[in-house]
Amino acid sequence: MGKRIASYSEKxxxxxxxxxxxxxxxxxxxxxxxxxxxxxxxxxxPRGTLTSELGINAPxxxxxxxxxxxxxxxxxxxxxxxTDASEDWSGVRVIAAERALANRETDQSTGFExxxxxxxxxxxxxxxDLIFDLPPRAGGKLVTAALLAATHVVIPxxxxxxxxxxxxxxxxxxxxxxxxxxxxxxxxxxVPSIVxxxxxxxxxxxxxxxxxxxxxxxxxxxxxxxxxxxxQTRYACVPVTSQTGREAAALSAAYDSILTAAGAxx
Length: 266
Description:
By secondary structure, the protein is α/β, with parallel strands linked by helices. Helices cover 40% and strands 14% of the residues. Strand 3 and strand 4 (92-95) form a beta hairpin. The chain is globular.
């Protein structure tokens, strides 16, 4: 029930967490407008970038705690791990990350990769949306668990070599998940991220390469512009959709368009 959208790349610094936060902000605005249900966020990156931006510090129950539990067939345990985001992000419910989450990469428990998927069963309603932020790690246990729990994936790609490699390796991992587990995971788009205002030769070349390699999956119409406001809102731990001005409008429109492309509640 509901859409479960992962923001994923296998390279850091390409706007992965920023894209996740932007989608959470856009989904929250839809909820405040009365056109969507509850907005959830799940942070699977041990660095906790999304957790911090949503104004959560020292959570009592984290993603690490949830994934360390042995569900023994019990489903819906994620409801116990949810905590409210800060007042600036009111209405958003979060499964927060912590540094200890990295320990789950060596978890040898049988069926670990399905633990998050089972934990989320029955938690989301039909009109609810859940945004995942994944770690930039190839083939890791946390990535596998998150992709098996997700229904859709957005791949942000800066128009440089890191963006190209991150998208390529993410697509390869997604194919492995599909083939190995029979999971019908949908790639929404490879989205140009942190795009500068003026064209550069490299950006143009990388964009053309991504379009030639991935066809319609490469969506330059969903490009996320590079604006200083994005870093300002991250530092202030506030949604970009709560800001005013040209930059806020451009960023908000980009994130909202990505949600629409993913078929999120509108």
